[in-house]
Each structure stands twice: as C-alpha cells, then as structure tokens.
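Readers of this paper often ask what the protein records in our data store actually look like. The remainder of this section carries one protein's record, kept here as part of the documentation.

:::
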Amino acid sequence: MYVAVKGGERAIGAAHYWLAEVRRGPADQPAIHTDAIRDQLSLAVDRVMAEGSLYDPDLAALAIKQARGDLIEAIFLIRAYRTTLPRFGGSAPVDTGAMDIARRISATFKDAPGGQVLGPTYDYTHRLLDFRLMADGEVPVEGTGAEAAPSPAASDVLHILSFLNRDGLIQSENPTDADPGDLTREPLELPADRALRLQALARGDEGFLLGLAYSTQRGYARNHAFVGELRIGTVPVAMDIPELGFAIDIGEIEVTECDTVNQFTGSRTEPAQFTRGYGLSFGQTERKALSMALVDRALRWEELGEDDAGAPAQDAEFVLYHCDNIQATGFLEHIKLPHYVDFQAELELVRRLRADAAGTGADNNREAAE
C-alpha cells in the first residue's frame, strides 16, 4: 500500500459512513424492505438475477437495496456472492415446452394453437405518468374488458416454430450430446461455439445488447426478424440424484424465452427456408431475451454460409468481450482510483517534449537569421 492510499484510510472510512447514511435516506421515512423491492420492483430484480447469473429474488432485492438502485452495482454484488457458493451438482436442461405460461405471444401467427396470452405487459399502455401511484394505499384499477381467460395447459402450447420446422420451412437445430462449456468456471476463449455465445449473451448487459440488436434492425447485418414466439412462465428444474438413479424436481424458476424468425436462406442444393435466433433469460426480461435473439442470429452468419458484412453485431470478439457489464465497469471505473505516479511520468514527458520543441524552434530561428 503506497502513501497516498495510507493517508486516505480515514477519508475512505468516512465515505463509507456517508454512503450508508445517504442509502438509508431521511430517518423520518420508513426504510424500504427487501420484500417490497422483490415484489414491487420485480423487473429490476429479474435483471439483476439474469446478469448476475444467480436465481434468487431475495438476494437480488438485497443487492438492489444495498446498491441504492444502481443495478450494475447490484449485479456486481450478486456475482461476487455467487463465487462464494459451493457447487454440489448440475441440473438437467429445463424443458420450456412444459412451461406454466403467464405470457405468450407471436407476431407471426394470429391464431396460434394455444392462443395468445398477453399477460402483464406495458406493450399496450399509454406512456403517461399515473399520479395515482403517488397516493398511499393505491390499488389496481379493475379492467373494463372481458375477464381474462385462464392460461392454457403446457401440453396445449407447442412452440410456434415447431410448426414451421415440421414443414421444413425453417432451419433445423442440431443438438449435440457434448457438454457445453461453463463461463462461470472457465474464461471465454475464441472461437466460441454457440452454447458459449448464448451464455455470454444471457449474462450480458441489457443496454449493450439492446444497442446491438437495434443496429441489426437498421441494416448493420442482414437480420430482418419477426418474433416467432415470446413466452414467459415458470419451468421445473430437475437434478439427477446418483443415489436414486433418476432425476427429481428440486424447484422452479421463471424464465423468458424468445424465438425469432429471420430472413430466409437457400442455395442450389438447399431449398429456401427461414433462419432463427434464440434468447433465454431469468425472470420477465423480454427486452433482454429479444435483443439476445437478434444478436444470436447476427453472430451465426458464418455457420449459415453468409458473407461477413462487417457489422458490429457480427463480430464475435467485439460482442462477447464487451457485453459483460461487470468487466466493463471494473475497467472503466478503475481510472477513478489514484494514478498519480503514472500521470506524473506522462506529465514530465510532455514537458520535456515541449521544451525540446521550443529549443528546436529557437535554433531554427537563429539559423534563419544568420
């Protein structure tokens, strides 16, 4: 520890005390309970869980409270806590076909088997401030339309793209038996297969992926897309128990899944068919899952035999090495810390260069006068 930091220990301690005081807010106001954050700021909680790679609404709510609502700081806290947890096994892949659906829409088929389930969404709301929410004890306003129909059973809700797949109208997926890599245990290396890319995107920053996804829609990649299906709901999580010899359900999680139908491809030997993108994320994270699907499709240009258009969303190294907001935050914010020695060295170099240039200029002037 060098002297500049040693002398600042008291200042750092005071800053921590001040931070706790500001986080608590005025003492005459009731403190926000983590249960209220979990239940009433659930979309923020879902984002923290998704990008923190840890499904625990209570811990995510605690992190949001501790971070004063700074979601990236909360994600950092969750990631750090996650590294302290022992790993005692792995779960089987979740079956989204068995999802207990809360929301399920398709922009490609109006009369989709199983129906459209709008669920809790801002898609059809007016973007006007509702000042009733500033009143104490507000209650939801009853709807004026028909009573909501019950959600369909999972067995009645096949994935939309399965109908296109049945008729050979969309590129088929080729699953592999090989275990995918695990970015939470091994650092990312390129080239990365699709499983690793999807992991990186699933825990990537929502805003970064949103910007990339928007760029593909504006022409920076051949990526015209339709939302084949977007569904939100809970799925069971199963785990193999060696002592029993079979898998048992150990709980359930809420996820958002998005399948996009993208521009078609074909060749002299292959008939024209649509291509696809995919996104899956913890909680109700529609914007994230949709952005993820668009970027996933853009990154598949090589596997689909397309030419590299040079778009940012098609550059796997650019996307995967910059989408993680914790790495980005750490590298960005470290420049706020003391760099006195480095700066003084560069400052001395600039002064010497200026002095040398001034001396050279004076010599030139003397030679011209002579």
